[in-house]
Amino acid sequence: MANFYTDNSDLKFFFSHPLMKRIVELKEQGFKDKGKFDYAPSDADDALDSYDKVMEVMGGICADVLDANAEQVDHDGPVCADGDVTYAAGTAENQRVLVQAGLYGMSLPREYGGLNFAMVPYVMAAELVARADAGFSNIWGLQDCAETIYEFASEEIRQEFLPRINAGDTCSMDLTEPDAGSDLQSVMLKAEWDETTGMWLLNGVKRFITNGNAQIKLVLARSEEGTTDARGLSYFVHDRKWGGVTVRRIENKLGIKGSPTCELVFRNAPAKLIGDRRMGLIKYVMSLMNGARLGVGAQAVGISEAAYREALKYARERRQFGKAIIEFPAVYEMLGLIKAKLQASRAILYETTRFVDMYKAYGFISQSRKLTPEERQEFKKYQKLADMYTPVLKMMASEYCNQNAYDALQIHGGSGFMKEYPVERIYRDARITTIYEGTSQLQTVAAIRYVTNGAYLAQIREYQTEEVGEEFAALKETLVKMTDQYEQACALVHGRSDDFMDFHARRLVEMAGHIIMSYLLVLDARRDVSFAASARIFTARSRAWNQERYEYILNSREEDLADFR
């Protein structure tokens, strides 16, 4: 039987990272659940063994069920009728099998029926699901809403909703509106307190809502009358069994067709407040969006993996001029670059996830006891690193996902343009990853402050202190020179107008991203030589990409910006 976990040695490698045992120990808080729950681990090795075994189960289901259903789901899609949505038959089967296997609620505490897994295995599961069916990953992956409920909702709301998520109830985050897409502070869906029912009532329209037919809905709404900015927004949970929400239509999309993207109408829909009023966008949605961007990073890596597998398979089988096309340099160069971008994306995905795991673990510990000064310092360090890396991960992994899908289809030639080959669906599914949960342009906006304050440069210099051995000394020397060039590029922009900085922001963020991802590949190759080829390919390409960006910045003038307006 096929298995998307065991057929990919890269994945198990990330469980062996030196930081993983520390993450597990913090997550398990001294393994306090041992004896309380029969599936709770007794030590770090036991927990990591559980991660491995559960990923093997997930990998088997992804290969044998989700992947097998993907084409039918893409063809049939969900159907909207009488204000509700019916999933495609394959989607319903995916849901049923994963619920029966207990593969929902991985990261939730055991007292709510979860597995209390760290974020690394949860994100790895998301990657596996996306490799099988990128559209279904939005249905399975939006259980990340549960993290928001657990972190910020009252214990009453936790008890009411979290066990249901473990049982397979679907979730959605209802944020965007017809006139409020990326500009969420413009949200106008109205929330009014109803004394009679002791509930909030929601009225308005939401648009482009992923999995909008979900049973459990987290809704951003304007609770403060007369406000027009972020300070008037609060966050609510709505249960569809309470009534008041109608699915007006499902959007007819280019890709991820199995995931219903809905327009919703709220008419006196009852809801409960999550956390404090006025903090909806400022605190809760920002936290949720960071989690969602991590999820899109995993989705992008999963799609890249699927694209690479399809391209490699076709290149080995397709014969032209008397030999397999994989023997032609024009093809094997493309395959090598696809794999290098894939492994670089995966490296930053799990580096970012480890940072998230560390700061979240300290955050949960702080709810039961005061952190020591050293712990508090580590909490702040990893929180900053997670905030720094998340936009770079989301932007770079999604851009590479699109490039890899494009090249994979190109390797197929005319066959790739036909519905008979999965790469056609993969190519369409990839496109959304640079758009939703914040476009690549918005990720640049989120990341640029870490360019201007020197945070990326400082982290790169920290990687520079790592020993890489004689085998990778030349690569490290290249990266040191690239870092010096990046520092010069930052100096060229520093002190110029805001427009000049904004104009070159993406180039600077990408330069930092290329260096960081190259270092991560080199450090991975130090531990496992199977990453060496990708480390060499990606670093060489990154050097060329950064040189191009540096030359453009060096030779640009502020007065030239007018040509683009």
Describe this structure in words.
By secondary structure, this protein is of the alpha+beta class. 58% of the residues lie in helices and 12% in strands. The chain has 17 helices and 11 strands. The chain has helices at residues 9-15, 20-28, 44-76, 89-100, 119-132, 134-141, 145-152, 155-166, 280-317, 329-365, 373-412, 422-430, 440-452, 455-464, 473-493, 498-527, 532-555; strands at residues 79-81, 84-86, 171-174, 190-194, 199-210, 216-222, 233-239, 245-250, 261-274, 319-320, 323-324. Strands 3, 4, 5, 6, 7, 8 and 9 form a 7-stranded mixed sheet that branches. It has a two-stranded antiparallel sheet with strand order 1-2. Strands 10-11 form a two-stranded antiparallel sheet. Helix 9 (280-317) packs parallel to helix 11 (373-412). It is globular, with a radius of gyration of 24 Å. 48% of the residues are buried. The mean pLDDT is 97.
Query: Whole-number radius of gyration?
Result: 24 Å
**Global shape:** globular
Number of beta strands: 11
Individual helix count: 17
Order of helices and strands: HHHEEHHHHHEEEEEEEHEEHHHHHHHH
Return the average pLDDT rounded to an integer: 97
Descriptors for this entry?
two-stranded antiparallel sheet; 7-stranded mixed beta sheet; 11 strands; globular; alpha+beta; 17 helices; 565 residues
